[in-house]
Specification:
There is one protein chain. By secondary structure, this protein is α/β, with parallel strands linked by helices. It folds into three domains: 5-240, P-loop containing nucleotide triphosphate hydrolases (Rossmann fold, 3-Layer(aba) Sandwich), CATH 3.40.50; 247-336 and 425-509, P-loop containing nucleotide triphosphate hydrolases (Rossmann fold, 3-Layer(aba) Sandwich), CATH 3.40.50; 348-423, no CATH class. The chain is built from 17 helices and 22 strands. It has helices at residues 45-52, 75-80, 98-103, 117-131, 146-159, 176-191, 203-209, 232-240, 299-307, 329-334, 344-348, 355-359, 378-391, 409-422, 439-454, 466-472, 495-502; strands at residues 5-16, 19-30, 34-39, 60-65, 68-70, 83-86, 164-168, 195-199, 212-217, 220-226, 258-268, 274-284, 288-292, 314-319, 322-323, 337-340, 370-371, 375-376, 427-431, 458-463, 475-480, 483-489. The strands form five sheets. A six-stranded mixed beta sheet has the order 6-7-8-3-9-10, with helices on both faces. A six-stranded mixed beta sheet has the order 16-19-20-13-21-22, with helices on both faces. It starts with a strand and ends in a 7-residue tail after the last helix. The chain binds adenosine-5'-triphosphate and magnesium ion. Residues 45-46, 408-409 line the site of magnesium ion. Magnesium ion (MG) binds next to helix 1.
Length: 509
């Protein structure tokens, strides 16, 4: 074949304890194309890209960059070969400015050998202009949105002259508007001659920007296709090995008594500003109440207050008719509050603990798991974990004994959801439940949420994904600037109407 290949990986194998993350993988990326990499959670996508970026050494296989065989020992090697990677979890320094982060390690210096900040800001502004990546070089990272932080990461690779750019699930953390912007940025990068590898679970995005798609299944290549020649369903079938139904079965809700009642609550954010203002909302047993809104409109502060992680400025929170406003986090859990947090790395799992230990994190002190009054019964813990691993299809190389931090991103998410649903809470609070999950897992998790509802649980769902809100919820509360704009029955409102309320326009009556 005489095409110009930017990257040619051949026979790549990488084994971890209990699993071949990559098994004789061949990957060819043409010069100046956008190639999508698709596969179930744990299929080996991030591992393959970490090998290309020099973070992992493959056990077998060769890599050619622009036709030349190379060994990529570490990310510095990758950078000098013109390879840049946008990781799913950004690696920025929060109290540094945009410009400082971008030039870090390659700073322009003045005659005294010190950082020439003015020169750095000028270069950043020039790059940002050239690629249409809007940022303000002087802003501190902690003050800008996730979408902007991602643009900083992209500029960082461009500053290092990358011409091959790897995106690992870049849209998982973005709002719908930011996703559209990123798709446009990716097209721009291609127009400027870059070669792009895009890992994503969202078929729409593959259809929107990618030319070819390579599909991984359980560590092996299932095939490479021209995106224009296949349907979304065909892609899914290649990925999973069988047809997957993409809709969920959901009957009408049978709402009962009010389970959670928020009465005029106000909550401050970490900078001491009011983020939730005088908000009232009731969530009933047997219904899924969705909170629709653009990121940063008080959603995280609202959830922190309900779960007991942040204090109330005013107002009160009631669960099953009891005032829980001043109760501890553990008391709330014992009262039947389950919580799937938005940031699974920070609040969801303890990485150096095993999957078994993590799955028992909220009930390890209960009689089932305590022997002779004080010793943890690991056998029971691991037995129950094994059941959850099976039910939720959590791909973990060594089962319950796998270290949580070594699982793929999507499988970590499945583990948290399994743990929280297993406790069968009377109230399930769930933030961004399907972020980073493959389509099969999304279908499963959504149907589990519906079946919790049908068992009479109250579900409060926060999601930036309006499609998700529209498919799952029975009632939808739109939040804007810390206040509920309107609460609507899902059947009586369109996505467009919710979208314009999210943007702060007044609800139609
Ligand atoms: N450092 C590690 N130690 C042990 N096992 C690992 C490690 N990194 C990855 N694995 C295992 O290798 C397999 C592939 O993981 P990888 O992260 O590449 O999947 P992925 O396709 O990126 O999945 P996701 O869509 O969930 O991000 C998984 O079974 C994972 O548990
Ligand atoms: Mg991954």
């Amino acid at each position: 074949m005489m095409e110009n290949l930017a990257i040619e990986m051949r026979g790549i194998t990488k084994r971890f304890p209990g699993v071949a993350a990559n098994d004789q993988v061949d990957l060819a990326v043409r010069e100046n194309e956008i190639l999508a990499l698709l596969g179930e959670n744990g299929a080996g996508k991030s591992t393959l890209m970490s090998i290309l970026f020099g973070s992992y050494d493959p056990d077998e296989g060769t890599i050619k960059i622009r036709g030349r065989e190379t060994r990529i020992r570490d990310p510095n090697d990758a950078a000098s070969l013109g390879i840049g990677m946008i990781h799913q979890h950004f690696k920025l320094i929060h109290n540094y400015t945009v410009a400082e982060n971008i030039v870090l390690g390659m700073e322009p210096v003045n005659r005294l050998g010190l950082l020439d900040l003015a020169a750095a800001e000028k270069r950043v502004a020039a790059l940002s202009e050239q690629y249409g990546l809007r940022v303000n070089p002087k802003d501190k990272i902690e003050d800008i949105t996730v979408g902007m932080q991602q643009r900083v990461e992209i500029l960082k690779t461009l500053y290092r002259s990358a011409d091959i750019i790897i995106f690992d699930e870049p849209t998982a953390v973005l709002t719908p508007q930011e996703i559209d912007e990123l798709m446009e940025i990716i097209r721009q990068l291609k127009a400027k001659g870059k070669t792009i590898i895009l890992i994503t679970h969202k078929l729409k995005e593959i259809k929107a920007v990618a030319e070819r798609c390579t599909v991984l299944r359980r560590g092996k290549v299932a095939g490479t296709v021209n995106v224009a020649d296949v349907t979304e369903n065909e892609l899914v079938e290649m990925m999973v090995g069988r047809a997957v139904k993409l809709e969920i079965d959901k009957g009408p809700a049978k709402p009962g008594e009010v389970t959670l009642s928020l009465r005029n609550i106000s909550v401050k954010n970490s900078r001491g500003l009011l983020a939730v203002r005088n908000l009232s909302l009731d969530v009933r047993a047997g219904e899924i109440m969705g909170i629709a809104g653009v990121d940063g409109n008080g959603q995280s502060e609202l959830i922190s207050a309900i779960t007991g992680m942040a204090p109330l400025e005013s107002g009160s929170i009631w669960m099953d008719g009891a005032d829980i406003s001043r109760q501890s986090i553990r008391k709330r859990i014992e009262a039947g509050m389950g919580y799937v947090p938005e940031d699974r790395q920070k609040h969801g799992l303890i990485s150096p603990f095993t999957v078994g230990e993590n799955l028992a994190l909220k009930n390890y002190y209960t009689p089932r798991y305590i022997d002779r009054g004080f010793v943890l019964n690991n056998e029971a813990i691991n037995h129950d974990a094994g059941q959850l691993i099976l039910n939720f299809d959590i791909r973990a190389g060594k089962g319950a004994l796998t270290l949580a931090g070594s699982m793929s991103g999507g499988n970590q998410q499945k583990a948290i959801i399994a743990r929280e649903i297993e406790l069968s809470p009377r109230l399930l609070i769930i933030a961004q439940p399907t972020r980073g999950l493959d389509v099969g897992a999304i279908e499963y998790i959504r149907s589990r949420i519906v079946s919790e509802r049908d068992k009479g649980r109250a579900v409060l769902l926060v999601s930036f994904d309006l499609d998700e809100i529209m498919t799952l919820c029975d009632r939808i509360a739109t939040i804007s600037r810390g206040a509920i704009v309107a609460v609507k029955d899902a059947g009586s409102v369109t996505a467009q109407e919710i979208g314009s309320m999210m943007a702060g326009e007044r609800a139609a009556r």
